[in-house]
Amino acid sequence: MSETILNPNESLAIIQKVVNSTRQDYHIQRKFYILWGILIAVASFSQYAIEKNILSLPKYYPWIFFPGVGLILSIYWGYAGKKTTLSYYNHFVLTMWFTLYIALGLSLYISLYNQVSPFPYILICVGIGTSISGFLMKNLLFILCGLIFGIGSIYCLFIPFQQQLLLNGVCMLLGNVMPNLLSQHV
User: Nearest CA to 32 among 93, 73, 85, 83?
Assistant: First the structure.
């Protein structure tokens, strides 16, 4: 096997090709980010309305209904847009988010078992994923939105549960939905 030595221009061209591929793969996946951001925000706001007796639904119903809708749509979109091969970026991002969802599920279970709010954990897990995605795409907006989630997770520690619901919803809209709607020119 022979090694080819690349000149600086060829090296930069390969790097640019990988970055462009990453950005194109992201555009295919952005509907998932928008979907889940909206569903989690609506679940948070709905739960707040239940807590304040504005809506008369069973307690925690939004956390069963909206993620159920998201799961069904995600599976459908995933199979409808299935590629035969995954790029390195797609493989990494899917693995990262799958791992974060496991961490999120475990932290939800632990927080409910210990009767503490899950929102700091939700926000930090989503913030980590958003920041890493931003670093991969070299997109400052996503990196900053990851920081919004981190700041929100810390702020949750100092406010009551009902306000945490609102903060979670706002963070999802500002940190997840907004950058994905604005990032048409990533």
Answer: 73
SS3 call for 142: helix
pTM for this predicted structure: 0.78
Size of the chain, expressed as the number of residues it contains? 186
Q: Which amino acid is at 34?
A: I
Whole-angstrom Cα distance, residue 127 to residue 175?
8
Q: Residue 122 class from Cβ within 10 Å (0-12 exposed, 13-18 middle, 19+ buried)? A: buried
List Cα–Cα distances, 28 to 36, 149, 151, in angstroms. 15, 23, 28
Cα–Cα distance for residue pair 38/43, rounded to 1 Å: 8
**pLDDT category of residue 143 using cuts at 50, 70 and 90:** very high
> Using N-to-C axis directions, what is the helix angle for 88-113 and 119-137, rounded to 10°?
170
Instruction: Report residue 185's pLDDT band, with 50, 70 and 90 as the boundaries.
Output: very low
Q: What share of the chain is helix, strand, coil (3-state, %, to 5)?
A: 80, 0, 20
Quick one: average pLDDT of 52-66? 88
C-alpha–C-alpha distance, residues 50 and 65, integer Å = 14
